[in-house]
């Protein structure tokens, strides 16, 4: 990895276009997938990642040289990049795949990201990703990328403090037992958890500026990667429907209903 | 014989009117244990909530029925009945008419003028148990539902059929369609879908003598005689009880967008509205205004997600614009065109704005506007004046009221904390809210009739959409002529000679 110019940060934020989390998911009749003809938007954890990069620049000012966002997806994914640019990113990279292509898998995405990183003349010091995408909930891409790049990783971050002078970062992670603090050397992969920040609205002047920011278009073959899926989805079903409860009018009725359900009294 | 009965009836009604001037209610009887016994013959015990035997409800359990949403109006009813069918409603009403017991029909009890709670101990007839959708035709979009269906649940019912209810308001999680119809509710979508006088196709109403008037039509067009349903729409339960509604649902928009615009001064709202109507034309579906002070209250009380600090700087007021249309790209092109022209103009009407980027942000922006009412109620006790005045006068009305309160020495933290305005500017409807630390006669005397006289001076309406209820009975004269009021009273007498139906509301 080429070292970057001394003490300046180049941040890469991969983002994914997913079904919006407010949408009600419907399984397709063929049980191979879900209805995709619904509203999409940026994966909420990726919004948090973009917001964190923008906040780092607000805190470190000129020490952050560039914030680049990248997405791997069909033509419509470019809108997700525009939203990220409207939030404050500088430029974007769209690795475009055909509309009909199957969704890329985490390993494929991680390899594509590695290829994108290696193309960056100024190098990349910090990659901030969402901890998982709300469509597959895989939570693998960040970790796989760190492995491929042989970089340290700090996942499920709820706090990120970067020291450009020492090229280190202090990351607080959310774990089952509470919070864990790590000190990591840059270059570093960080994945965001919910409590890291609250993403800003895109305001009109920034939305207009975003229209003029550059987006580089690439294809998987430009990056020399193959995104053919290695996993076959056998079946997709909805979870079993919850049956409603019922109200009873009296204690006697309650006891009768319990007996009906096969629950017997405990012998004293 | 008939003539003498008629004469004595007329004498009695004149006496009633005379008494009505001094006391708010006609002479009615209170519910007693015999009445409960009678109701028990055709209602299950779960449908009778009463502090009278043999029922055993406590008066605190009756409290959510006896007190309105703002906790400003307090009834003293001993009995709440919750019938399940129009037939049961009819039997209750017939009996109460014979016994001379007053009835207050109650839906979601979200009304803001005290129309849904008793003035004294009238029986509360709650429609909450009548909550089934009766039918829906996805081709015509005609929905027939029980009056007790909650508005939001109707939205959820229609959603998979790609239709929407033609009205929407902040109280949607609690208000019922029967109540909406009885109050001719307006709300956030009136700009686009019109009023209930247009979208309601038919009603099933129980009249004060117990007759079930079934006019539940599923026909879009039906010009056969006098359109009686129009009397009940907006009658606030004083002419009869709505038990079923047939309404024309609208096709759900394929694409919705919203944006909150920050304006440097209020004077820009009117030209902004003209520009928005011109450029957005048929896709404009809501145009809402709120002033800076009420926005800060919403943020303080956690309504929706606050805008960024720099977007709010220097803004005197805000406008929320919503578009709904059939094709996303078409709508976005129109909306972006409008926003660009506003930002790049030589004399910009706006400082900046926030455009929603996803359905969740769309909901968050709406939550700010819809949460204003709740924020005001959390901040203190609200005196609400829902008025129609010329759009250009909105700020003047708010400022004049604030100055008047200040001149009475009542503008401080222990009396009136805030005087704010927000509303459906696209419909010319302002919600003037005076937020006080407590409801006091002093503040009320300072506000009324001052606000009504102010509205009358603009030839406006003292109640754009909230209705008259108990609150504005004495103010009706500011917006309607004496002749109009006289004819309203004649119609009331015709339908409800004994005066049992929501007594003391709307008319004196």
Automatic annotation (TrEMBL), chain A:
- What's in the GO CC field? mitochondrial matrix
Q: Which cofactor does it need?
A: AMP; FAD
CDD domains, from UniProt? ETF_beta
What keywords sit in the KW lines?
Electron transport, Mitochondrion, Transport
The cellular location(s) given in this protein's UniProt record come to: Mitochondrion matrix
* Cofactor comment text: Binds 1 AMP per subunit. Binds 1 FAD per dimer.
In what residue span(s) does the Electron transfer flavoprotein alpha/beta-subunit N-terminal domain sit?
Answer: 32-227
Spell out the InterPro entries in the cross-references. Answer: ET-Flavoprotein_bsu_CS, ETF_a/b_N, ETF_b, ETF_beta_N, Rossmann-like_a/b/a_fold
What's this protein's family per the entry?
Answer: Belongs to the ETF beta-subunit/FixA family.
Annotated function: The electron transfer flavoprotein serves as a specific electron acceptor for several dehydrogenases, including five acyl-CoA dehydrogenases, glutaryl-CoA and sarcosine dehydrogenase. It transfers the electrons to the main mitochondrial respiratory chain via ETF-ubiquinone oxidoreductase (ETF dehydrogenase).
Self-association state and partner proteins as the record states:
Heterodimer of an alpha and a beta subunit.
- PANTHER family on file: ELECTRON TRANSFER FLAVOPROTEIN BETA-SUBUNIT, ELECTRON TRANSFER FLAVOPROTEIN SUBUNIT BETA
| Protein name (database record) | Probable electron transfer flavoprotein subunit beta
Please give the organism: Cristinia sonorae
List the taxonomic lineage: Eukaryota, Fungi, Dikarya, Basidiomycota, Agaricomycotina
From TrEMBL, chain B:
Lineage, top-rank taxon, reads Eukaryota
In this chain the FAD-binding PCMH-type domain maps to 73-252
The family database entries (Gene3D superfamilies) matched by this protein are listed as: 3.30.465.10, 3.30.70.2190, 3.30.70.2740, Uridine Diphospho-n-acetylenolpyruvylglucosamine Reductase, domain 2, Vanillyl-alcohol Oxidase, Chain A, domain 4
What catalytic activity is recorded?
(R)-lactate + 2 Fe(III)-[cytochrome c] = 2 Fe(II)-[cytochrome c] + pyruvate + 2 H(+)
Q: Which Pfam families match?
A: FAD-oxidase_C, FAD_binding_4
Secretion signal, residue range per the UniProt entry: none
Cofactor dependence is on:
FAD
One annotated Gene Ontology cellular component of this protein: mitochondrion
What InterPro entries does the annotation carry?
FAD-bd_oxidored_4_C, FAD-bd_PCMH, FAD-bd_PCMH-like_sf, FAD-bd_PCMH_sub1, FAD-bd_PCMH_sub2, FAD-linked_Oxase-like_C, FAD-oxidored/transferase_4, Oxid_FAD_bind_N
What are the entry keywords? FAD, Flavoprotein, Oxidoreductase
Report the family membership: Belongs to the FAD-binding oxidoreductase/transferase type 4 family.
PANTHER family named in the record? D-2-HYDROXYGLUTARATE DEHYDROGENASE, MITOCHONDRIAL (PTHR43716:SF1)
Q: What is this protein called?
A: FAD-binding domain-containing protein
- Source species: Cristinia sonorae
